[in-house]
Write a structure and sequence with these properties.
This protein is mostly helical and 90 residues long. Helices cover 74% and strands 0% of the residues. The model has no long low-confidence stretch (mean pLDDT 96).
């Protein structure tokens, strides 16, 4: 599980320099992040996924942990998670 999380964080950190949060490739990886949470921890509705993204920025403990993969990654993930949730695949 940790390896999968690390892989997603690293891929997103690499993407954020040249892509926007609504880029198809970014959204695919964010979809993987949603699946990881939904399949392994709890049923994660689009609203809950948005709230989780907000927490990544509002709680500095999360921000510090996520931003160790790349400065600004927590905000990038939040933005991408909002877009993903707004266009949640049925």
């Amino acid at each position: 599980m940790q390896e999968r999380s690390d892989s997603i964080y690293k891929r997103l950190a690499n993407l954020m320099d040249e892509h926007t949060p609504n880029d198809a490739e970014v959204q695919t990886v964010i979809g993987e992040w949603h699946s990881l949470i939904h399949d392994n921890f709890y049923e994660c509705s689009p609203e809950m996924f948005k709230g989780l993204g907000d927490m990544y920025v509002s709680d500095q403990r999360f921000t510090r942990n996520i931003d160790q993969y790349g400065e600004g990654l927590a905000e990038f993930m939040r933005d991408a998670m909002h877009i993903y949730s707004d266009n949640f695949p049925e």
